[in-house]
Structures are given as C-alpha cells and as structure tokens.
Amino acid sequence: MTGERDLRALLSGMRPELNEGRYVFTTVAGRIPDGLRPVVTVAEPEGTTLVLRQEAADRAGLAYGYVAGWITLRVHSALDAVGLTAAVAAELATAGLSCNVVAGFHHDHLFVPYDAADAALRRLVALADRS
Asked: To which H or E segment does residue 21 belong?
C-alpha cells in the first residue's frame, strides 16, 4: 500500500470530493477537550491545533477565525510523491484561493475558504481533466 507517485497519474486521478460542513482551525493547550472529534490534530510547542467542524468549536467555546471547506483528493498518493501539493496549490493560487494541505496516509486533504469551496472544487476537477 505505497500509493501513487507518478504526478500525471496523481493529477488525472485525484477525484476531488467536497466534504459536507464548515471546518475551523483552533488551538488548545494540553489535551483535546472531551467530546471533540477533530479531523486533524497538530502538536506544536505553542499548543495543539485542531481542525474540526465549526459547530463543535462553537459548542466548546473555542475561538477561530478561518472557516474552511474540506476537499479530499480521492487518489491514494504516496507520502513521498513529488509535485501534487505544488500543482494543486498553484492551481488554486491562480484563482486567488488559499489552501491548507494536510497529508493523510491514504489521501491529501485541502482546507479552502468555505465561501469559495465550490469554485476550488471546479478548479481541481478542471486540473484533473487537463492532466
């Protein structure tokens, strides 16, 4: 289960999918509060970053600023593949869209501005079609 490494195959087969919901980035000191199920956690010296549904952050009283849509690239990319993140980020950058990328074992996940998530998805589908 090593995943795809060929950039052309990665791009043409990425099959981007917009997950339902609004997601936010927040941070907590120490452990993750009970009842939260973040989709991403990152341990940093300053605190633990959590990416979770906006309504969960609201219920927990957690502060956030950036509200994102979550796009999953359905291609199984190898963790040592070269160029996928750069190509995707460049495509979205040409449209003026920010993109926060998180690599999972099987897939890459993109967090883009919520209000532009549909536009980002269309750009990624077009990139896949061109590849």
From this structure: strand 16-28
Place of tokens 């009283």: 61
| Token couple for 49 | 């970053």
Q: Where are the alpha helices (DSSP H) in the chain?
A: 7-12, 54-60, 84-93, 117-130
Report pLDDT digits (tens) over 30-86: 889 989 999 999 999 999 999 999 999 999 999 999 999 999 999 999 888 999 999
- 47 Rama sector, left if φ>0, alpha if ψ -120 to 50, beta otherwise: left
DSSP state of 35: T
pTM tops 0.90: yes
What is the residue type of 98? S
Say if residues 19 and 40 touch (Cβ distance below 8 Å): no
